[in-house]
Amino acid sequence: MAETISDSTMKSNATTSMSSEDTAPQYEVHWFRSTLFQIFVVGAVFFCAPGMYNALTSLGAGGLATPWYANATTAAGYAFMAVLCITGGIIVSKIGVNASLTIASTGDIIYAGSLYLNSKNGTQWFLMFGSIISGCTDGLMYAVEGPIITSYPEPDRRGRMLALWVFMRSAAPVIGGAIIFGLNNSIDSSGGVSLQTYLVIIGIMCAGPFISLLLSHPERVQRKDGVRIVFRQTGWVQTFTEWWTIVCSRDILLLCPLFFTSWFYGSYIGTLETQYMNVRTRALCAFILRFGDIVGGLMIGYFLDNKRLTIKQRARLSFIGVMVLNLTLWVWTAVVTKQLEDKKPVIDWTSGSIFASTFLLFILFELATMATQTCLYWIIGQMSDDFVALSYMTGTLRGIECAGQAVAYGIKSSDTTNWLSIGLNVSLIVFSLPFAWVVIRKIGVVAFAKTTFAIEGKNDNETSGAESDKGQIA
């Protein structure tokens, strides 16, 4: 892609921007159809499904006594999730946003049930089955929620809406963690959590499918700027053509190494919790750590909407900031790991400095990871305004992340050395930086050709125009 924009393109973009900003809504925005309410619905569904799943994973090994088989099933779940994330946009474009969200809210209920049965009866085959089903539905969840949170909000509120979404998705593990902590705070030995824990979490998860019914169809959403959201209906040939062109575009491929490593840390931190912390301290982690998610998402979200800085400055400063923070935390992790391997403690919240250093490290990892995640979604949101195109992009983002998680949990499905995980995480971050920077430095400077492709493919009469632009996509 060229590094400069032609005068005609600049004029066209300026005209489009002015028309979008000056267009006043021809109706009174109803709260039920507002973008804010839609984000609340998506956040509430995530709260009940993947959010409560995350509350269980905050315990390490899903609350079970040993991490190895749980890590193997989690790796399988993430492998299927990766496939459904990447291809889920096609499903969303065919069955619609509402049906996709409802279906996506069901799989985690099965997974939580499998944890309960395995903890009670040792039914390991069902744990593997539940993890795979959960992976498939969560993959569809990420494919449908991504374009909602990036295309529904008005451009000048996108960072704050992302922050709100982060807050709601992170509130689930906080509240779920409070429940878990309340049910397990008296267990001061290592092992699995109480069976009642799973029953309470399953009850909350069951509300997700009903909440999903409140979501408005994209074309019925009312934005404050009066711009309508278009959910394009295309034939199978055009659908696969657009999907393939977008997911294989140069900019998306350059971001893939960063996508892959953005959640790679989780298996290592979860294994450390299971190995060195007793049950009540793991329950405390499940309750407190997600506050780091909330703080990280809110901080970066409001920064990304800061109009005192240009879009170019926001993109570059946020990217540099979160990458420096991530690398710093891995240096700290190496120090803490050496201490744990030397002392081999069973950490309780009364353990003094070893608890404080480990616990604070875990919180900062949550903050850094959610700040990174919010930044990545914001970057994707700068690359297109088309709902279907964004479903392909955000699905690819989450799919590659899941592939990284599958590899990470696969590595920790056996008792491998901790230094392998540390070395891989640092190496992957360093490897991804120059590729991601090629894309970051374009934001606010040059146009992204994928947007042109998606907009010109809006109807069958314009398909040929879209086809002719394929060569322009970076």
From TrEMBL:
InterPro entries: MFS_trans_sf, UNC-93-like_regulator. GO terms for cellular component: membrane. It comes from the Eukaryota. Its main location: membrane. The chain crosses the membrane at residues 36-56, 68-92, 99-117, 123-142, 162-183, 195-215, 252-269, 281-304, 316-335, 355-380, 387-407, 419-440. Keywords: Membrane, Transmembrane, Transmembrane helix. It is a multi-pass membrane protein. It is found in: Membrane. PANTHER family: ET TRANSLATION PRODUCT-RELATED, UNC93-LIKE PROTEIN C922.05C. This is Major facilitator superfamily domain-containing protein.
